[in-house]
Known about the structure:
The chain is an alpha/beta fold. The protein has a single domain, classed as Pectate Lyase C-like. It has 9 helices and 34 strands. The chain has an 11-stranded parallel sheet with strand order 5-4-6-9-12-15-19-22-25-30-33, covered by helices on one side. A 10-stranded mixed sheet has the order 1-34-31-26-23-20-16-13-10-7, with no helix packed on it. It has an 8-stranded parallel sheet with strand order 8-11-14-17-21-24-27-32. α5 packs antiparallel against α6.
Amino acid sequence: MTRTRVAFGAAAVALALAAFGCAAPRDDCPSVTPRVGAQRPQLDAAQARAYSRERVLGAAGRAGDLQRDGWDPLADTVITGERLPAFQYRVDPAWADGRTVFATVQAAVNRAHTDIGAGAQRAPRIYIGIAPGRYRELVFVPTGPVPITLWGLGRLPHEVTIEEDLDAGVGAADYRRRFARVYEAPGVHPEVAAFYRECIREDAASRSCMNVMWVRNDGFQLRHLAVANVPGQTRQRHQQAVAFRSEGADRVHLEQVQLHGLQDTLYLRTPTPDSTVRSFVHRSLIEGDVDFIYGAGTAYFLRSEIRFVGPRRGQTHGWVAAPSTHLRIPYGFVFEDCDFSADGNALPGRVALARQWFTGAGCSPYGSQATACTLLGAGQSASGPGQVRRASIEAVGKMVVLRSRIGAHIDTAQPWAPWQTDPAHRAYRPAQFDGDDFWTRLASAGLDPAALGYARATPAQPWLAEFGNRDSSALSCPSGRP
C-alpha cells in the first residue's frame, strides 16, 4: 500500500488468492491515473487480491470468531439470471384476491410468513413477484426460517417503485396517523406488529423508524425494482431518511436495484457493534448526498453506479459513505468496477468518498477541544458530555475502492474526510488510513493502546485505500447499467 510517509508490503494480506479480472477503462468518459499521496493511499497488486469477492463475503459473525461458509452470491443463477422464477405470491392491486395475490407488498410478506409458520408453505425460498406500479408504503421483512425474494416485474427497475416520504423529523403521532391502517390491521405478522408498536412510542419514530424497506430476513434478495425515500422538502431539510435498511440480516443480495434518497439512503446495521453480516450489491444504482451508504456491515458493491445528487440548500460538501466497521472485523465496504458519478448540480471537488462514522461519540480524544474526554471502560455507557465509549473508538470504518471510475465531484487530492472538519468539534476524528494511524493517534491523545488491550499488527492493515481506479474529468459519466 503506497503512501508518502510509510510503505506496506504484501505481508499485510493473504497471498494465495485468485487474481482479479481487470476491468478496462471506459471509453466514453475521459479519465486519468489518480494522483498518489499521503492522503490517497494505494494498495499494491498483492494486497488488492485480498479484497476478492470470495474473500470479503466468505465469513460473518463476531470479531475473533468469524464463521466461514464460502457464500458466493453469484452462484445463485436464479437471482442473477434472465428467467423468471416460479412465484408463490404476487403483488398486483388490480387482481388481489387476499390468498396468493395482494394489493400491497407488506400484505404479501405477511401472508408468506403466516403460511410458513403454519406449515402451508414449504419451499426453500419464497419468491414474490411485484407488478409494475408505484407502491406508496413501508415494507418490513421479519426474521424467519425461509429467505424471501422480492422481484419487480417491470421492464426496467424504476417501473416498480416502493416509496415513502419519511425522515427523522416525523414524530410518533404522525407515524401512527400515516401507517395505522396497515400495521394495526388483522393478520399482521407479530414481529412486524412489534416493530410498528416501537415506532409509535413517543419520539421513537425519529430515532430509528425512518426506513422505507426494513429487512431482518437472512438470505433476503431484492431484484429489479426501486426503493425511494426522498422527503418532500428536499432542498430545505437535512435529516436522516433511509430507503433500505438491513437490520442484522446476513447474506443480503440486491440485484439490478435502484435506491433513491438523500441522507443515509442505504443502512447496513450489524447485530452488535463487534460483529458483521454481509451484503452484496450488483448491477445497481444508489444515490444520495450525505453518508448515503453507511453502517458497520460488510458489503461488496460490484458493477454498480454510486451517484451523488445535490447539493441541497446551504450544503457545501458531501460524503458518499460512512462505514463504522469494527476494529477487529477485517472488511467493511468494498467497491469493484463501480462508477462514482454525480448529477448536474454537484460541485467539483466538494465530495469525499467516505468519512469514518464516529458512532455515538460524546467527545473526542483526537481534537483540540478544551474540555477533557474520558474513555469509558468496556461495557460502560456514556452518561453525558466529556465521555466516549470503547465501542465508539473501535468503530474505525473500513472502505476500499478497486478498478472504479471516480467522478470530478470527488476531492481527488483528499478523498477520505475526517468525521467533522473542525478539530474543536466534540466528535472530531481525523481519517485513519490503517492500523498504525489508530495506534499513534490514541498514543498522541495520552491513551496507551497496549494498556487498553489493543495489539499492534505488523504490517498495519489498510482501512482506507484504492487500487487501479481512474479519475474522470467529468462530473457525470452515465454507466448505462440497468
